[in-house]
Design a protein that fits this description.
It is a single chain. By secondary structure, this protein is mostly helical. The protein has 10 helices and 4 strands; from the N terminus they run αββαααααββαααα. It has a two-stranded antiparallel sheet. A two-stranded antiparallel sheet has the order 3-4. β1 and β2 form a beta hairpin. α1 runs antiparallel to α2, α3 runs antiparallel to α4 and α9 runs antiparallel to α10. The radius of gyration is 21 Å and the shape is globular.
Amino acid sequence: SMLVVSVVALLGLAVDPRVITGAPAWMKPLKFAVSITIYGATLLWMLTFIPDRPRLVAAISWGVFLGLGIEMVLIVMQVLRNTTSHFNQETPFDAAVFTAMGAVIAGMWLLNAIVAFLLARRRFAEAPIVWGVRLGLVAGLLGMTVAFLMTQPTPDQDALIAATGSSSIVGAHAVGVADGGPGLPVVGWSTDGGDLRVAHFVGLHGLQVLPLLGLALVRFGSSWLPMRDRSRLVGVAATFWIALTLLLTWQALREQPLIAPDALTLLALGLLIAVTAGVSGAVLARAWRTGA
């Protein structure tokens, strides 16, 4: 279904010149459709590891299908109405749309937490894959949690609400600047201020990166590298990924664009990379010595 929406959104980009909040009107449906396609394929694969709970798996599957289906319908509807879907409080109808979208995302978080809980209690593949899936779900939950920060009113919105009792927009992707300003191509992440979508994106795609790393280590790892050490490498990578998501959140909340980090952010990133490389090297060196 989302692949079909992607094609429709691409056609919209080609023939519809409208711009909403500084971006082509059909860019948001396209980005969401592609993201949901990847997420759906990943979750379907993970649910195959729960063969003994068919009713629960069916409930999760239908919950995700209906929830994200509703989310997509509302996004496309607002594009057709030539208005925004996220943070829109301009009319009672727009506010109800955004409230419904928020409820859907909260439901998605809960369903993912249930899957993470179920897979934390069973061994369903080689250990590196198991840990990749488990820790990928944790990273994905963290990425989803970052999205809830976007729903909080900005200082300017708080001031407007205090003065007038209402605001047509409550919440924002950007921090320190208004949404819709200069941004990176395609993704639209702000180049003038912080942007919480960066950490949201990185955290969510831990769902794919970490299981794929575990799978690659199982399939292509050297014979001298025991499965236990391959699992440790997955754990090191997951720690890096989760820490990077938190670092990017911290950077955004300090109103820094992704492409313009200050010295403190660069220092934190450098330390994170150095520690990750050091621990990975120690695991590999120990395995090599043991194998030798």
